[in-house]
Design a protein that fits this description.
The complex is a heterodimer of chains A (156) and B (100). Chain A has helices spanning 3-26, 31-73, 78-90, 93-108, 116-155. With 156 residues, chain A is mainly alpha-helical. Chain A has a single domain (3-155), classed as Four Helix Bundle (Hemerythrin (Met), subunit A), CATH 1.20.120. The longest helix of chain A has 43 residues, at 31-73. Chain A is elongated, with a radius of gyration of 18 Å. Chain B is 87% helix and 0% strand. The model of chain B has no long low-confidence stretch (mean pLDDT 93). The A-B interface holds A 52, 56, 59-60, 64, 77-78, 81-82, 85-86, 88-90, 92-93, 96-97, 99-100, 102-104, 106-108, 117-118, 120-122, 124-125, 128, 132 and B 1-5, 8-9, 11-12, 15-16, 19-20, 22-23, 42, 44-45, 47-48, 51, 55, 70-72, 74-76, 78-79, 82-83, 85-86, 89-90, 93-94, 96-97.
């Protein structure tokens, strides 16, 4: 267990929950709901950028040198070769998706009560952020399982 | 701070495809991987910095072009790009693990 994994996971999931909140607010937009959604989306952007930095720091300082060789030598090497490799790149999409959703709210939030198309645009991007972030959390579980199974195969 | 929405969404879509290209390119081309490693000490760090820098450049370019498309169509473009690029990256690494 490493504190940076916990911080990275917390920031990523908090970012995902922020955009789930945004999505729910926009299902029936009013002036106060859009204002709240804009603030929450801004916090979500911040969380996802911080998750990028913290996760990247862990990946470079701990994962590459300690965890990766253990997983690759264990019974589930695909959890690194497929899952980590996918996760480390797909994760980079999230901050740009988040900036997109926040930008829609910031610039076009006041139109959303009359123009449902702009609300739909923010809902689509927010929903994708939620789905991708939780899929990435699932990938984190698989990578942890790959590491654990490698350690168990040595210990047992 | 008010971002140009269409420019943000379109720059995001193009950046996502750049990330996918770099992810695959560094696995297939050792010189590219070495070049990126020489830029920032580790190729993933270089990809992160390059993707952010590319987003800023793409945003600036799209902001100058002006907005002729709707916010909804740009949001759909961004979302479909993220889904398609994610599938391409995953499929590539499955192929790379099984056959390369």
């Amino acid at each position: 267990m490493h504190a940076l994994i916990g911080i990275h996971a917390f920031l990523g999931e908090a970012g995902a929950l922020a955009f789930l909140w945004v999505l729910v607010e926009l299902l029936s937009p009013s002036e106060s709901r859009v204002r709240r959604a804009t603030r929450i989306a801004g916090i979500g952007v911040l969380f996802l950028f911080l998750a990028w930095i913290v996760g990247g720091y862990y990946y470079l300082t701990e994962y590459q040198s300690i965890v990766k060789p253990v997983i690759k030598a264990g019974p589930l090497p695909w959890t690194h070769s497929v899952i980590t490799e996918t996760k480390e790149h797909v994760f980079l999409f999230l901050p740009f998706l988040a900036l997109g959703a926040w930008s829609i709210l910031k610039r076009h939030g006041s139109e959303m009560m009359q123009n449902r198309r702009t609300a739909a645009a923010a809902i689509i991007v927010s929903a994708l952020i939620v789905l991708m972030a939780f899929s990435i959390a699932g990938m984190g579980f698989m990578i942890s399982s790959g590491f654990r199974s490698a350690l168990e195969s040595k210990a047992l | 701070m008010n971002l140009n929405t269409v420019a943000t969404l379109r720059a995001g879509a193009l950046t996502i495809w750049l990330i996918a290209a770099l992810a695959i390119g560094t696995e297939l081309s050792a010189p590219l991987k070495s070049f990126l490693t020489s830029l920032a000490g580790q190729h993933w760090t270089a990809k992160s910095i390059l993707s952010f820098a590319a987003f800023v450049i793409f945003y600036t370019l799209f902001s100058r072009i002006g907005k002729s498309t709707s916010v909804l169509s740009s949001a759909i473009l961004l979302s479909l790009s993220a889904i398609a690029a994610g599938i391409v990256i995953f499929a590539f690494f499955v192929w790379h693990f099984l056959y390369a």
